[in-house]
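dude i think i finally got it to work??
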Amino acid sequence: MFRGKKITVMGLGLLGRGVGDVLFLAEEGADLIVTDLKSKKELKESLDKLKKYKNICYRLGKHDLKDFEGRDFILKSAGVPKDSPFIKHAQKSNTPVFMSTALFSILTPATVIGFTGTRGKTTVTHMVYEILKSRYAKSKNKVFLGGNIRGIATLPFIKKTRKGDMVVLELDSWQLQGFGDLKISPKVSAFTTFMPDHLNYYKGDLKSYFSDKANIFRFQNKGDIFVAGEQLCTLPSYFTKLLPKDTHFISERALPKRIKLKIPGEHNRYNAAIAFSIARSLKIGVGIISKALEGFSGVPGRLEYLKTYKGIKIYNDTTSTTPEALLVALEALGTEKNISLIMGGSEKNLDLSILPEALRKYCIHIALLKGTGTERLLKEKIIPSNIPYSLHGSLKDACKKSFKNVSSGGVVLLSPGFASFGMFENEYDRGDQFRDFVNKLKG
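look at this
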């Protein structure tokens, strides 16, 4: 399919998805240019996996306009600026621009099931995947998991998927740009929540952020399935009027009370209700759904219980990159003054005013990770005056301080509420470092 095609891949990255796409295209015999703003040293882990391929030319540490013309197409990674001069140059020279997950979705004969939302999309995606795996365990039809999943490239599924298979995709707003470009939407989809996020990327334009998210349903056909979380009902009319008129809104009340979840928090019953509704719309039996949901132990980095150390419960919530996510974590785990919290990081230009009351109610101590967001948090005096805090240039130091300020029966929680850039490669690196520290605790 791609043999001899001249393809420029814009963005290799370190999460494994870009590498997976390049590996697949290289093995297919494509003539590849891989370009990334990161240096050879920064990308070493990814580059080492591609050493044996001679049909790859690298342009690292910069982009060159010449690499975006005279090509069969450009494969653009998530997060490339909307106003990228290199993408504009490709379009002016009539060079098609695709994104990996969207390109896969128009080429696969399988049924595409997609989930988006500011919060909840990852958990719902994994819940539905587990339900479908259980339902089709003894079937010839296969179930795949992809999209915005660490270490999983979706494009290579083209060679594996067949008619009757199902591909469950977590889709962030950037990946959904690619769906908008191709004017396609998943056949089955859900929109979990919508809150301010990524405003640094969208330059403060919440409507632009929603517009990308809306591609989850915008191009669906008659008979396709779409549900939305009830939280979307609370949005200003500008947003709600863009939803399909027959949108089915789901709240936690849609989940049968007899279903008991392992994972904490009312927000996870909300997530499970959406997963339950999607599964029922696919005509899966309640018994199969219930068993899968009750056995679901969560997703790494999302209120992930790590262990209990000297009576202290430890949770890794590194994917908490917004104030709303941090608030949910505090409410899920908090009792009166029982949490020693590790938070802070890089600025995303989000509203912090929802935090003080919850910090005052649930936190016994706060260890702050240095970053532009933390600087603003301190400047705006978001931390209540009666909560002791400390400022740290390393996660290790923040962890040590957190454990010194909590006793048996309490909780140490990493839930940053900010982006990870600066101190870490990404939020997964942040979570990995936290997990490594916790795993070394003795006693």
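The longest strand covers residues 363-369.
im so relieved honestly
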